[in-house]
Design a protein that fits this description.
The structure holds two protein chains of two kinds.
Chain A (H helix, E strand, L loop, with lengths): L1 E10 L2 E10 L4 E5 L6 H9 L6 E6 L2 E2 L10 E4 L11 H6 L9 H14 L15 H13 L5 E5 L7 H16 L4 E5 L2 H7 L2 E6 L2 E6 L1 H6 L4 H7 L3 E8 L6 E5 L6 E4 L5 E7 L5 E3 L9 E13 L2 E7 L3 E6 L1 H6 L7 E6 L5 E4 L1
Parallel strand pairs in A: 3-8, 3-9, 6-7, 7-8
Antiparallel strand pairs in A: 1-2, 1-4, 4-5, 9-10, 11-12, 11-14, 12-13, 14-20, 15-19, 16-17, 16-19, 17-18
Chain B lengths: L7 H27 L2 H8 L2 H34 L5 H13 L2 H12 L4 H8 L8 H25 L3 H9 L4 H29 L3 H6 L6 H12 L1 H31 L1
Classes of the chains: A alpha+beta, B mainly alpha.
């Protein structure tokens, strides 16, 4: 368990203020924030590359606030991976092992095992310059895991890889986390938080402005900033199934008959996002080209930045953005029944 | 449609560049062609000449090795740390480039002569510094150190700090980080600085002649032959020394290139 208590740090004109977070043993903790919000600085403090002005950091009950970075058992993977260019993949992975009192054959064995776990065992003799971005990242992960870290810090791990690789890397990261290594992952991409996080913290201008379960944070954003930054209200874990073999697929969600999605993704687990502004309300069932139409109940109606926000329940709760005039003209009030519809192509499916 | 690859503008640039190359190469080539093979052979067999060349190479080598031990750590600090008066330190490093080398020689002579603390200490150990190979190395080092420090500093500065941080995060001590990450990655720049320092030291005349006329390094010998016997006698030594220096320079360069390809 990692615990940061009231950490503050001034770096030139920038300040991290009163950061308190708790990362439990099995947490996949995602810190989301715009660039310049202080995400990397936060990781550097945890890793010990800089020391806080005040506050304390404890890891598994031990105070490591003032520990040297070599004596923290905190593994960090940098955004640009920081692969040593003058060493082969194998030498990179072996780097932390040379400080661990191991024999040459033990080191070789461990390097091989880590490389197999990361599916890079065929690249061990390569020079880093010959590797793709994804392969470099796996090398960096293997090298950091060789340290046997008590916690893993990831700085924007998915920002430099192309979309097809993201799915695989997310699965890999989840696998590492499941093995019992807590992960702190900083990102500017809310998608990472939706797909990976067991806990989310939102950071802005050097302050943590909300922490909690991802659903909590995105469905009940504590500030307009988070709502706008997240830009997403309706997201659900789902299982994609392919009934027709065409581009139109069905995303299954608990307590719901399923949502039609247009996607090229292959069937499997993932998350769907239904943009709140793409959902239409009508008083009766209508004949429409939209493939998703459900009867729902209005739960809440309240003003928002863009107009009015209506929360409806059709087995799952959805937020719908409408104009103020629509609310009065259609007489949308809490408790009444209403029909909602949205196009299969406006639903986004993120695999992972 | 195929247009001429070179516009008038580039033709002018090429012409001016050509003039410059001619200016550099013509005097050297002229000297080479004026020297007969038999003269060169005779000179190469003079013990005085070979002794002088060996002295030059070894004193320059000594200056470079000693310089490296002191200059590489300083270069690393200059590349990595900010400290008060850093600008002044950088200025001091560049000082030898701007002061006349004869003046530098005078300064060093004053520093090592028998009535100074350093001179007395050396005397006590049984060494007379003035006129010794040590003094020659010191004069060479004084004027050639900036080349090494600047090259090494640029080399270290080009090593991304993230790699050093990553190594520390992986458990390496600062010394280990320096030896396993910074030094290997900056090595090409450092080696190129070492070659420059060595070449500059070998060809140094002004500072060396003041601290040690004897034993004679090659540049001093060339001057001595010219002033005592004239151009005709100074030329074969000059040609021979240039050949030796060129040979070493090219050999080191090839070594550097090979390392790059490896």
């Amino acid at each position: 368990m990692l615990e940061l208590k009231n950490i503050s740090k001034t770096l030139g004109s920038f300040q991290l203020q009163n950061i308190s977070i708790t990362v439990e043993a099995h947490d996949y903790f995602v810190v989301v924030g715009a660039s310049g919000a202080g995400k990397s600085q936060l990781l550097e403090l945890i890793a010990g590359m800089s020391l806080p002005d005040s506050g304390s950091i404890t890891l598994n009950g031990l105070d490591i606030t003032q520990n040297k970075m070599q004596k923290r058992d905190v593994g960090m993977v940098f955004q640009d991976y920081a692969i040593f260019p003058h060493m082969t993949v194998a030498q990179n992975i072996a780097y932390p092992l040379q400080y661990k009192n191991l024999s040459k054959s033990q080191i070789n064995l461990k390097v091989k095992m880590l490389a197999e776990d990361m599916a890079i065992d065929h690249l061990l003799d390569r020079n880093p310059a010959e590797l793709s971005g994804g392969e470099q990242q796996r090398t960096a992960l293997a090298r950091t895991l060789a340290l046997d870290p008590k916690i893993l810090l990831l700085d924007e791990p998915l920002s430099n890889v192309d979309i097809r690789l993201k799915y695989e890397l997310r699965r890999l990261l989840r696998k590492i986390n499941k093995k019992g290594i807590p992960i702190v992952h900083v990102t500017h991409d809310f998608e990472d938080a939706i797909v990976l996080a067991t806990k989310v913290a939102v950071i802005k201008d050097g302050r943590i402005i909300q922490t909690g379960h991802p659903t909590e944070v995105f469905l009940h954003p504590a500030s307009d900033f988070i709502a706008k930054f997240a830009g997403v209200r309706n997201f659900f874990r789902s299982e994609l199934i392919d009934e027709t073999g065409s581009g139109l697929k069905l995303a299954m969600i608990k307590n719901h008959p399923g949502i039609h999605v247009v996607t090229d993704e292959t069937p499997g687990e993932g998350s769907i996002i239904i943009p709140a502004s793409d959902i239409f309300l009508s008083n009766q069932k209508t004949e429409t080209s939209a493939r998703n139409q459900f009867k729902a109940q209005v739960c809440e109606v309240f003003p928002s930045l863009e107009g009015m926000e209506v929360i409806v329940d059709c087995g799952i709760k959805l937020a719908v953005l409408v104009s103020r005039s629509s609310v009065t003209e259609m007489n949308i009030v809490e408790g009444r029944d209403i029909w909602i519809s949205f196009k299969a192509s406006s639903v986004q499916f993120i695999k992972g | 449609m195929y247009k001429s690859r070179y516009s008038t503008f580039y033709l002018i640039l090429i012409f001016l560049g050509g003039l410059l190359l001619l200016f550099l190469v013509a005097p050297l080539l002229g000297m080479f062609f004026k020297t007969s093979g038999t003269d060169l052979w005779a000179t190469a067999n003079e013990k005085e000449v070979t002794d002088s060349f060996l002295l030059t190479i070894f004193t320059a080598l000594g200056a470079t090795v000693t310089g490296a031990i002191l200059a590489i750590p300083l270069s690393y600090i200059l590349a990595r740390k900010d400290f008060p008066l850093k600008g002044l330190v950088s200025g001091i490093i560049d000082l030898p480039v701007v002061i006349p080398h004869s003046a530098a020689g005078i300064a060093i002579l004053g520093f090592i002569s028998r009535d100074t603390t350093l001179g007395k200490a050396a005397e006590f150990a049984g060494i007379t510094l003035v006129g010794s190979p040590i003094a020659i190395s010191m004069a060479m080092a004084f004027v050639s150190l900036p080349f090494l420090v600047n090259a090494a500093r640029d080399g270290f500065a080009a090593v991304p700090e993230r790699l050093e941080k990553a190594a520390m995060n992986l458990g390496a001590s600062p010394t280990k980080v320096f030896l396993t990450i910074s030094l290997p990655l900056a090595w090409r720049s450092i080696l190129s600085g070492l070659i420059m320092m060595f070449a500059r030291g070998m060809s140094e005349f002004g500072a060396v002649i003041i601290v040690a006329y004897h034993p004679m390094v090659a540049p001093v010998m060339i001057f001595e032959r010219f002033s005592s016997f004239g151009l005709k006698y100074a030329t074969p030594v000059s040609v021979l020394f240039i050949l030796v220096a060129l040979f070493l320079f090219i050999a080191f360069r090839l070594l550097l290139k090979k390392k790059k390809n490896a």
